Each structure stands twice: as structure tokens, then as C-alpha cells.
Amino acid sequence: MSDTCGVCNRPLLDPESRAAGIGPTCARKFTGGHGTAGSHQLTFEEPMTDTQLQRYRKLPVETTAVQLRWSSWSLVCELLGDALLAENPGGADEVNEDQAADTCGEPGPGYISLKVRTAHDELATVRHGDWIIPEAQPGRFYPCKPEVFAATYELADAPTPTGGCGNDPRTVLSPGDQAVVAEFKEYLAEKRRADVAEAVLAETKKLLERRTTTLRKRAESAEAAIKRTVDQMRAYVVASGSAGVNPKQVIDLLSPTWPNGNHKAPAPGSVEATS
Question: Which of 87, 131, 205, 262 would you label with 166, given CA atoms 20 to 30 Å apart?
């Protein structure tokens, strides 16, 4: 009697198979799979694969990451390097508090967002509070939401900080970082004023163009009216002959309602004599 199959060395689970020293699957191989099972074989098939799902643990991989916030701005610049200006030539964009992934306990306004290029050569937006994680390819990064980062990563070879990031003593700005933050906030304010001035200038230009077009049309209309009046006066002088020009009709032609197009050159002999 054997507890394991003499062919595949797998455990035998029933007394008849133990007595025969071979399992039903291996025994079926010797009968071509079509023979009649003997008394030492079971009628059920013993699986040749693993009997249950196995669990595997992913190998630990360490990476460098930094959270986009004011207290780590110098680290953001260090991590992104030349890619910071390459993907953000106009500087960082300012976002409202509700658009920030996490304010990190930092007071607003002045929450920011940046663009990073991913391994798929696409531009992705990193908002205030998002984590920036480098890809294997140099100059490529991808953003990670703070809640996803907290559930996926842990700090390597360092004590886990206690409390939220706003209460973490390591988030206190150094004098150098404070100067960088102040300078960048000043840049954002100047950029915002420049954008407003540019918008006002564009609207003013449009208004001047509309007014210039209107004045040009009015000048052309006035020029045409003066020409018509002059032509009417000349025709009137020619028609009046030696009798001269009727001052009343001339005044009518030059009245505030001119040229109304109602005056016509009078027939010869019907013109009033001048006084």
C-alpha cells in the first residue's frame, strides 16, 4: 500500500488507489482512456493542476516622489529639472481651492498646477496636492492623487510622519523656500495683472476699430451729401441765368436738414429776383 502514486508521485486520496499504488488519472493513461476502470480505480478524475489559487506578493520597488505644494516647491524643481520649463514655458497655472487635489493645510490663494509629460508622450496635469512620480524614461513623469499615493506607497527607511501634512513639522518652510514661494507668488500676481491688461488692450483695440469704421462711414456719407449739394447749387445757378441766386433756396440747401433731396433747379424765368 502506498500513499502516493507510483507514476506522478501525487497523494492518493482513497483506499483503492492506495492499494493499487496508482491514481485513476495515471491508470487511465495505460488503458488509453477508454478501458473499463478496475476495482482499484475511482470513477472521479483527480486534477493534475494546483488545487487552489495561489497568492503572490509584488516585489518591492522604491521610487522618488514629491508632492506639489509650497513647502516642497524646491524639491519639485529639483525633481522635474529642465522638464519644468520645457513643459511649462509660461509658468505654472493658478487654480482655485476647489480645483486643488489637496491644499495640504497651506493657506490660499495661489494654489498651482503644472504640466508633466508621461511615458506615452502625453501632457498630464499635476494639481496642488498631487504627487509627481518619475517614469523609467528620463524627463517623463506621471501624477498620482494623494489618496491613491497613500494607499500604494509608504516612506522607505524613514519613520512615518504623524498627523496630516499641514501638521507635519517637516513641512515648515526654510528661509530659502519662503523666499522662493514669495517670489513665485509675486510672479503669479504679475502674470495675472499682465493677462488682465492684455485683455483690456484687446477690447480697446476692437472698440477703436468699430469707432473708426463708423466715423469712416459717416465721413463718406457727409462727403457724398456735400457733393450733391454743390451739384444742386451749380444747377440752380445755371438755371437762374442772369436773375442770380435765390438766397432763400441757398439757405434751405444749407439748413440743418440738408441735403434732403427735395430742391431742384428752377425753370428759367421762375426764379425770384435777389433783393
Answer: 87
* C-beta separation of 115 from 125 below 8 A: yes
User: Is the distance from CB of 115 to CB of 88 less than 8 angstroms?
Assistant: yes
254 DSSP assignment:
T
* Predicted structure pTM score: 0.43
Beta strand pairing status for 131-134 and 141-144?
Answer: antiparallel
Q: What is the dihedral of CA 57, 58, 62, 63, to 10 degrees?
A: -140
For residue 4, report the phi and psi dihedrals to the nearest 5 degrees: -125, 155
Q: Work out the burial of residue 55: count CB atoms within 10 Å of its CB; fewer than 13 is exposed, 13-18 middle, 19 or more buried.
A: exposed
| Residues 6 or more apart in contact with residue 84 via CB below 8 angstroms | 76, 77, 114
- The Cβ of residue 148 has, within 10 Å, a number of other Cβ atoms equal to 12
User: How confident is the model over 114-150, as pLDDT tens digits?
Assistant: 999 999 999 999 999 999 999 988 999 999 999 988 8
Q: How far is CA 22 from CA 5, 17, 37, 49, 102, in A?
A: 4, 6, 12, 17, 65
Q: Do residues 244 and 274 make contact, with C-beta atoms less than 8 angstroms apart?
A: yes
Contact status, residue 227 vs residue 217, Cβ threshold 8 Å? no
Any residues with CB less than 8 A from the CB of 73 and at least 6 apart, and which?
A: 177, 180, 181, 184
67 SS3 class: strand
- Stated as kind and residue range, the H or E segment containing 95 is strand 93-95
Strand order in the sheet with 131-134: 66-67, 131-134, 141-144
- The one-letter code for the residue type at 92 is A
